[in-house]
Write a structure and sequence with these properties.
The complex is a heterodimer.
Chain A (H helix, E strand, L loop, with lengths): L3 H15 L1 H14 L9 E9 L8 H12 L7 E6 L2 E6 L2 E6 L4 E9 L3 H8 L6 H21 L11 H22 L1
Antiparallel strand pairs in A: 1-5, 2-3, 3-4, 4-5
Helix pairs in contact in A: 1-5, 2-4
Chain B lengths: L1 H17 L4 E4 L10 H6 L1 H4 L3 E11 L6 E5 L6 E5 L15 E13 L1 H15 L12 E13 L1
Parallel strand pairs in B: 4-6
Antiparallel strand pairs in B: 1-6, 2-3, 2-5, 3-4, 5-6
Classes of the chains: A alpha+beta, B alpha+beta.
């Protein structure tokens, strides 16, 4: 009895256990970031409208003070911007106030990172770069090992020469047919 | 219980690794001298194709992919779009209001009325919005910095 299958199964099992968490991270994030046209997978965005008196002042600092006073904001904003002569924006951590100067009508935009998903997406998309690039490479190599060793875990009719062959071929045909359809038809 | 502890430990480490100010995005900055955005917008042809460094507060971020930020000029009513290739850099949506230094190559392109209408139609179709071709009055010059690296305070 050759021992390669024993070591194959040990590798498959132990690497499999090790990468379970990261596989969940990449899988969940993968679904989330596949649909960026429909939602923002990293942040929750909420907009609320409000109405003030027309903003008083001639220069930006006066207008900023007037808006802060009307909204009862005690803290100084991180920054202020005038995108056009009739609009003033006040930026705070996680929220932006945009006010139409002549009418006083405005919108507060709240931005909050989505719990758990934000971290998952940052790791999946390798936002941190640096050391995480190496971890991600090691994870990808581990996935390749788990995939290949997985083919040879079982022998007999449920192994790669029987049932396993059928499902492995299905796994090749689906992306191949899709690619031919996408590229040439 | 153990699984919960593991999950929270993992999230804590990930959050700690991802948090912090003065973050570097993309390549390291190499240009030392800052060019004023107001100077660029006043005479864009001088800077077209040149590598430059700009600074200013972030006043908008791409909501879908974080693939651009808008940096406020040193003068009112002006800003410059700092655009990166999708996936190369992902700017956080909560960077609004923070100060940024961005380095890249300035691109100045003039689009004809027909090109703008075509692109407007495609954008509206993608975003499932209405588009009125009459809203395009004539050709438009688009000035943006093809971003390669940025530091956000």
């Amino acid at each position: 009895m050759i021992k390669w299958r024993k070591w194959n199964n040990i590798l498959h099992r132990d690497i499999g256990y090790t990468i379970t968490m990261l596989t969940l991270v990449y899988g969940i994030s993968g679904i989330a970031v596949n649909h960026t046209a429909d939602w923002n997978p990293n942040y929750q965005l909420q907009k609320e409208s409000f109405s003030l008196e027309p903003v008083k002042g001639t220069a930006t600092p006066e207008m900023k003070q007037n808006v802060m006073s009307q909204l009862n904001l005690k803290d100084e904003p991180k920054s202020v911007f005038r995108p056009d002569p009739e609009t003033i924006q006040l930026f705070y951590q996680g929220r932006t106030y945009t006010v139409d100067i002549p009418t006083g009508k405005g919108i507060i935009e709240h931005v909050r990172p989505r719990s758990v998903l934000f971290e998952f997406n940052q790791l999946h998309l390798n936002t941190p770069k640096k050391a995480w690039t190496w971890f991600a490479d090691a994870y990808a190599a581990s996935l390749i090992i788990v995939a290949i060793t997985g083919l040879f875990v079982l022998k007999g009719k449920n192994g790669i020469t029987g049932r396993g062959a059928f499902f492995s071929i299905v796994g090749v045909v689906i992306p191949a047919v899709y690619w031919i359809w996408y590229q040439y038809l | 219980m153990r699984a919960s502890i593991l999950l929270f430990t993992f999230l804590f480490i990930a959050h700690a690794a991802l948090a912090g100010d003065g973050k570097q995005y993309g390549k390291e900055l190499t240009v030392k001298e800052v060019t004023k955005i107001s100077d660029i917008l006043a005479k864009p042809e001088i800077y077209n194709g040149k590598r430059i460094l700009v600074e200013g507060n972030i006043v908008d971020v791409c909501k879908e992919r974080g693939c651009w930020i808008k940096i406020a000029s040193d003068k009112d009513f002006e800003s410059l779009v700092f655009k990166v290739d999708d996936g190369v850099i992902t700017f956080p949506l909560d960077a609004k209001g923070k100060k940024a230094h961005g380095e890249g190559v300035l691109s100045v392109k003039t689009f004809t009325k027909e090109q703008l209408i075509e692109s407007g139609k495609k954008h509206a179709e993608k975003e499932k919005q209405e588009f009125d071709p009459a809203s395009i009055k004539g050709p438009k010059t688009v000035i943006q910095l093809k971003g390669e690296g940025a530091v956000i305070d």
